[in-house]
Amino acid sequence: MNFEVLDPGLAEYAPAMHSALDPVLDAHLNPSLLQNVELDPEGVALEALPVQESVHIMEGVYSELHSVVAEVGVPVSVSHFDLHEEMLWVGSHGGHATSFFGPALERYSSFQVNGSDDIRQIQSLENGILFLTKNNLKYMARGGLIIFDYLLDESEDMHSLLLTDSSTLLVGGLQNHILEIDLNTVQETQKYAVETPGVTIMRQTNRFFFCGHTSGRVSLRDLRTFKVEHEFDAFSGSLSDFDVHGNLLATCGFSSRLTGLACDRFLKVYDLRMMRAITPLQVHVDPAFLRFIPTYTSRLAIISQSGQCQFCEPTGLANPADIFHVNPVGPLLMTFDVSASKQALAFGDSEGCVHLWTDSPEPSFNPYSRETEFALPCLVDSLPPLDWSQDLLPLSLIPVPLTTDTLLSDWPAANSAPAPRRAPPVDAEILRTMKKVGFIGYAPNPRTRLRNQIPYRLKESDSEFDSFSQVTESPVGREEEPHRHMVSKKYRKVTIKYSKLGLEDFDFKHYNKTLFAGLEPHIPNAYCNCMIQVLYFLEPVRCLIQNHLCQKEFCLACELGFLFHMLDLSRGDPCQGSNFLRAFRTIPEASALGLILADSDEASGKGNLARLIQRWNRFILTQLHQDLQEVEVPQAYRGAGGSSFCSSGDSVIGQLFSCEMENCSLCRCGSETVRASSTLLFTLSYPEGSNTDKTGKNCDFAQVLKRSICLEQNTQAWCDNCEKYQPTIQTRNICHLPDILVINCEVNSLKEADFWRMQAEVAFKIAIKKHGGEISKNKEFALADWKELGSPEGMLMCPSIEELKNVWLPFSIRMKMTKNKGLDVCNWTDGDEMQWGPARAEEEHGVYVYDLMATVVHILDSRTGGSLVAHIKVGETYHQRKEGVTHQQWYLFNDFLIEPIDKHEAVQFDMNWKVPAILYYIKRNLNSKYNLNIKNPIEASVLLAEASLARKQRKTHTTFIPLMLNEMPQVGDLVGLDAEFVTLNEEEAELRSDGTKSTIKPSQMSVARITCVRGQGPNEGIPFIDDYISTQEQVVDYLTQYSGIKPGDLDAKISSKHLTTLKSTYLKLRFLIDIGVKFVGHGLQKDFRVINLMVPKDQVLDTVYLFHMPRKRMISLRFLAWYFLDLKIQGETHDSIEDARTALQLYRKYLELSKNGTEPESFHKVLKGLYEKGRKMDWKVPEPEGQTSPKNAAVFSSVLAL
User: Fold this and answer.
1) Which of 508, 791, 1113, 1124 is deepest in the core (most CB within 10 A)?
2) Helix or strand (DSSP H, E) at 666
3) Is 1126 marked as a binding-site residue?
4) 978 is in an annotated binding site
């Protein structure tokens, strides 16, 4: 830190920076306390100092945990958290170093580093600690032994050091050079000249060295040559501190004023990608220290000399409410440091006191710390006394020396015999699927045990379950061994088994016998499939999202609308949200919230899925609300208006989900502050002490919900009347109830799980008493009863015992707004409705009834790492569109598995394996309040000419002619289509023991080029779309041999192609599908799957199936073109224009040979000749000098005859 421009009272603490001044103590310090040796026993006792006691720590909020005295009266000059052990190092102005162990700050070691100079910087290494003073670098063991002592020139005035690697060190100070020192040889290896004298702070990233100068500048230097690459003139006076994180550089310092230097309350922030300053950040304290604390966000900690600390986002606005105060013993803070784990902050003041602030009661300084070595205690004093009168006293308590002689406890070989353990039985799943070849059996690995390991168990009853699977990611059920509770088959994680044909021979109908569409789970971050289904089956949300269209490239609302359109078109076939998840991965907020999982974490189940989906739920509602608030006519998609739902003030997402409320803060002085706010969802807040109350106290869900909505809590807040932070009582009053009530359950620990379990048991006992002898043990339904499940008539049937178990959640709740802005909540049953009448009549009096519409649950399965499923009550409108019937039914949605269930199953939560995560309640008669008409926002103007994203594209490179207004396609028009792809992630496969290949995860493809060719008219065969798709994701293989795509074709900076966004081209194809054109191509099924389009089967003319015989191989486009059209295509690479034209010509040939489909027998003879020729030539097209044209072959005579 630059001491030169700090408070004038601190000038004497850094005499090296004021060479012209003699060191003089501050008047408020006692000179007798400033010494370089340990305290005299008769001096001031440490207990006599007014050190603040530790306080209760709130999780996630920094509070003071401990304060200790390093050296009485001697200012702390530097503090440093050890990077290898749980230790905090402190250096003083008297050259004394002290270390403290653990969060309790127990004194570990204390020794003198320098007799006269202060310690400027401390750096921890694996074997010791580096101490930098004015002209001395000392490397000492953690116990105080000197490893080496490197003396610098007496004229040097060093201030900072930087460890560039494990054995290289940079040292800089108030001179025009920086020294590079090799720690292995303890010699100076390089001296770098510095243009601006005075480097007081140094930082390093993977791109630059950052050097802070006394003149207020920050220079960026090359990692290899140390040459200046860029320079920022941050402050006109001097630099106080700076820090670097990611692509941001934040600085604080002093500006020149007429009266001298003044602390600048504006932090200068720079974007390292564009190398320019962004909006300065105004803070409410005088910044002296600055550190990034990147936890869930890239927040900054700004510290002032007087002890004020403020947290804020580097690109946001600073909030005065985010300020907390450190209470130093001395008048000023001298040093500040942050631990590697970001859980602890250390402050040192001018009276030698160290303050430790943490965000948890038991913090750790490092993510992975090694064990600290302590001095061994005396073994004689620590040995327990032995009572020889005890017959069962273990003799192993007596320490004995290591010996090679035979011990008395060694059994002779004659008295012992080896008894091998009996091998455990073979898994029943292996025996069921095993195929025998001779005397050897082969079976797929059921993945219930570790590879190449057979665990032994002492209890035979354990053999049914696998206790060696990974621990579930949720804390719920860890102590109860969740693998002992069998997960129902339909709730288990479903996976797609791939064959050499990919997905073509996978039977999705086995998992889904309905006409609703499931979602495929193999895409990265597909854990949110269940929540996508929940949003889709909310009719107002479905219509609203499909009416939305905007000009943003990555708009989640647009992509969700495209996905909902696919779900509407599907007749039971699964869809995939690849484009939606692609846009989701580009949202910075999603990454900051930790919603984007790595492939390894998702496959191994390391992520906490319950917390993850609840954060995702809050994120998606907020994001959709923001996307739909702006109602402006998009310019990129001409004529595509905004949603008819939206108003200028608020989005319909806000109208549906938002709950308006007043937050009241009452100070103990009597001052009350009221703020209006809104929220899109609520989080359940459980009663205090619910885990300790084992008496089985009944607590309705409605009571817990009311407590969570009308939340009352005590907290510290700023009071304008008192002009300081005061304990306040904060309450929430509801002004307007939402139409859709969204609840995050927050069952993230055993405490909440035990509460649900206990309340379900109490509710079960009450239900048994209420129904008496009407309850049957088992309940079987006839076919007529099964059809009535979920209907109002079916609800009145008498429940069985199994239906009442594990049920605490009501199907309906009744809410009433009182005159004094209070809220009454109660459980609502069908009997209540018969007693009080329909709920619609009471809405005029502020009474509303909410029905349960969906529950999202977390399945704890140790075999697979867990999964997320949804129970959804599908409404009448969806059944009317899909099945032509009008009724309601509960369904289980488990990715692509969809199955009707009994309504009681949606509210039954066995906390051993089925944990609630999210609840959706909707108002009665919700659909009648909204306009549910869908108007397609995509218009013909999307097909007109558009600008390319590529900077170097020229008109001479144009490969297509856009459609004119008089060429707009009509229903039934032919369009030749072909697409080319690149690979984002390679395929993951394993080789089975029988030699066959099994695909674990298919390769992830991305569309790179889409071509559409006119199929009729004077310009037949001329492309009207030839778009190269820009991608921001890393491409691992361009597949140039098969796609013709070369590196650089998709880069807007260097590409010469017509480059556009995937959304722009997607809209063109969607318009063609909606208008009713017929697509002609070869292998279109894969093309549409990767593009993520659902095309009706009657609009697809695929030549791969037109020229195919049942139970025969598929024939390549190249061979068909050579055989029927005498064309040689796909020579070196593929070209999508050529392939699309060829497919159109082949379709014309098909119509010619089959007489427009009227002579199938004659065309069958043509196909037989095609397959005979293919087998003879091994399906390879001859080279130009090879065989003659197929028209001259005898096998083609039948074709000529036709």
Assistant:
1) 1124
2) strand 659-667
3) no
4) yes
